[in-house]
Amino acid sequence: AGGNKPDTHIKNVNYPRDFKADIVTDIARVEAGEACPKCGGKLASTNGIEVGHVFKLGTFLSEKLGALFIDEKGTSHPIVMGCYGIGLGRLLAAAIEHYHDDKGIIWPLTIAPYHVYLCPLYREGSKVSEVAEKLYHELEADGLEVLFDDREESPGVKFNDADLLGIPIRVTISPRTLEKNSVEVKWRSDRESELVPLDEIVARLKELVSS
Predict the structure, then answer these.
(1) Mind listing the pLDDT tens digit for each residue in 126-158?
(2) How far, in Å, CA of 183 to CA of 172, rounded?
(3) Is 0.85 topped by the overall pTM?
(4) Rounded to whole angstroms, how far apart are CA atoms 140 and 144?
(5) Pair 137, 187 in one domain
(6) Please, what sign has the CA dihedral across residues 89, 94, 99, 100?
(7) 3-state class of 201 per DSSP?
(8) Do residues 196 and 134 share a domain?
(9) For the chain, counts of helices (H) and of strands (E)
């Protein structure tokens, strides 16, 4: 057994001859449905995740570092140290585990890395690029976070990537929408989309983000 000293071990230790225990009890792994030892109710088992922690480190490190304070009597003491942490990566993983479908992530607006996924569908000779650039700068100027997908990819590739990334609002600009002087707006969590006139889109997106 450990001797409570560095590099010290004791042989032939016997309880209760050599030491006394503070607690002597039966200990077993608890199973769902068993009775709570405090209230008698049935215990339930569920999954959980550690997203933060607080540890009391005591004086072990402060003694080694010489981190001391002087009390009102002028006596020096080591600082009682502690530490805490929040697991941002774990929080994001927990959110994704809850907010997703078979296509990818569905970010809640409050924690999404961007508000809007701007998705221009380019075609030679169209004004899609010009309109998309203008809208991007207008949205950024009004404080919206925009992911501008300016790749020259097919609609299917862009839409699949948009669903995978899970940005809350997808704004699609195409020659077809421009024929109606509009853009298409779709929530990641919805199947349906809506056409919004170009002269109303900035105000409409600000309304959606603030709602």
Answers:
(1) 899 999 999 999 999 999 999 999 999 999 999
(2) 6
(3) no
(4) 5
(5) yes
(6) positive
(7) helix
(8) yes
(9) 6, 11
